[in-house]
Amino acid sequence: MGLTIAAAGCAHIISLPPQVTLAEVEPSGRAAKPPDCNMPVLRHEPLKDFRKVAIVEGLGNVYGSEADVLPAVQRKACETGADAIVILTSRAQTSEASTGYYINSVAIVYGKENPAAAGTAYKMLR
Fold it and tell me: Which residues pair with 101 in a beta bridge?
């Protein structure tokens, strides 16, 4: 009986929160949204015009799933002011570099031009 209790204690797995990184591609020209913003998740690039503003990657633990990692990725994308994220890769992986559930996505804003960049170009032409 004591062995059973000891084994049960060892079976408890400490789950760390997913780790998320963000790399800006270009300024979104938008203010950051609150962390709990409603960030749509797309599985394919939209048909209308859009710009990629950031690469957002998330890595969860070995026993994680997309449902465990995706909310953290969405929260990080909210910081960019993006309109949506496009999931490029979502899979469990085991490699020398990392092991766990991995999501690679891009944060996008709808429209062709960055209003901030357009204003800079106008000033440079004057």
Answer: 92
